[in-house]
# Entry
Amino acid sequence: MKPKSRTVAFNKPYGVLPCFTDAKGRPTLAEFVKIPGVYAAGRLDADSEGLMVLTSDGSLAHHITDPRHKLPKVYLVQVERIPSEEALAQLRQGILLNGKRTRPAEVHLLPAAPELPDRPVPIRFRKSVPTTWLEITLREGLNRQVRRMTAAVGHPALRLIRIAIGPIGLGGLQPGHWRELTKREIEEIYRNSQDGDSDQRSDS
# Structure
């Protein structure tokens, strides 16, 4: 009898690699998630925080990471200085990265800093350089895409947290904690996707 697949939402802390093993002994998912057979559906770099979906269901993992489905992924990003309307418009229209333009993004300038858990390693602070927070929604996953996009318009990212993958939100899940997804939530992931073009992009 085929074992029941398991899928969890995990809030990855800062400094944790998005994998279960590391030859250099750096912190990995294995320190937090003790479920055999699950693996990450997509990446989230060590210096980024927030939502990951871990699953033993290969079809679901492929659906989440395949760019053809345009599953929206939402990020909160703290950037240096306050972006102009022109810079925000560039992000919304798409940025040229390595000769290829990114898909249009939804970008909102937040009126105030969001309430978030403290990061174990504080962001660098410069008295002469103000910071602000953006909410960015992507429907693709190029390597380090959000950081590369904001840097390209002159606003380097200082802190980056993914707060949603499709209909699955981080909610009150604390860093280092996970929860099992319900059957209904998994069905919603499939319903939340859009059929799109078949360009091949790596998830980040």
